């Protein structure tokens, strides 16, 4: 038998904008698929109709595309209900799914009682002992059942792709509810049914799902399927060690986009924080996919550092080739490879190029101190004739030096302030031929 194509999925719940913590599994799954020549499924976990919206789902698709990920397939759980019906019936027929009639209040009371007796608040399976008459009575009262999966209650072992051998003891868990009173399905079941149906070979997700995996492995087996390989990655936290969460209103991926961050900077930080692969200015996601072995994902927390994002963003721009910048420059009404190569190393965000480009095209506001006015007027008279090239600056400044006796900072700084209006910036020897003689004449008094 040939082995199946490695197939992964990223399964966000479309209940809001995604944040860095969500982008992490999105990217790690993508790296895995790219590294192994596999397939990537985007699965919208939208069975919670009260909280899921199409708008969020569309936003997630856009954010994913912005990060550079193009799924091979998009599925929505809300469109796959028949599959869950079949699985439900199968589990009922095999006695693994059983109806329960307790209300929330009754369950609360049971849990409170268990706590008083110092017992873990695990569901007592009372519903397993209901007779047909009991059930008929509940139904006659208008109660509708919710359905629980009967766990084996045993140590479930699996070999985690990232964390190594793991054991989850389902004996210490409540039988999970898979079908609500209103007949809608919970994620725990739908996820397994989809993973089987879509041929998912590897489930890569956050370590907050480890105990879920114990339950789901039992459901895979109860449905007669082989469980996929699981890999649980460490979770991204903010600088204070707090988890990212939609509810806490963390910065979303679209906020980063709106603030002018490079998608690669966001992708690199979301995926490589908390790994031993250095955070560097990788040009493409494939470069990371080829380098990142899952054994490099650390077992401790992954602390996101916003200052590192800023510095990485700048580093990416400082090496961005003209081919990568030209379309974006055109969108700002700018062009010119020499201009880009001269100015890129000053950028923290791409849009700042509009401001910097005025050093070449003008207008700029020259900064001229009163005591330098005569000096600059003399310098103006000494400006060499065109054509200009990279040697023009030294010819000119040598001439000024000879005429005025100024040197060092006293010579260069007033020229820089007049020609650029600022203390920092690109090398003047490169700026001069780009700006041209006319612009320089205009900037000198
Ligand atoms: N919708 C689930 C979540 O966002 C998916 C978890 C999984 O990957 O199975 O947590």
Automatic annotation (TrEMBL):
Monomer. Its EC number is 6.1.1.17. GO terms for molecular function: glutamate-tRNA ligase activity. Its main location: cytoplasm. It catalyses: tRNA(Glu) + L-glutamate + ATP = L-glutamyl-tRNA(Glu) + AMP + diphosphate. A motif ('HIGH' region) lies at residues 12-22. NCBIfam families: gltX_bact (TIGR00464). A motif ('KMSKS' region) lies at residues 243-247. This is Glutamate--tRNA ligase. Belongs to the class-I aminoacyl-tRNA synthetase family. Glutamate--tRNA ligase type 1 subfamily. It is an enzyme of class 6 (ligase). Coiled coil: none annotated. It comes from Devosia oryziradicis. ATP binds at residue 246. Pfam families: Anticodon_2, tRNA-synt_1c. Residues 340-444 form the Aminoacyl-tRNA synthetase class I anticodon-binding domain. Keywords: Aminoacyl-tRNA synthetase, ATP-binding, Cytoplasm, Ligase, Nucleotide-binding, Protein biosynthesis. The gene is gltX. SUPFAM superfamilies: An anticodon-binding domain of class I aminoacyl-tRNA synthetases (SSF48163), Nucleotidylyl transferase (SSF52374). Residues 8-310 form the Glutamyl/glutaminyl-tRNA synthetase class Ib catalytic domain.
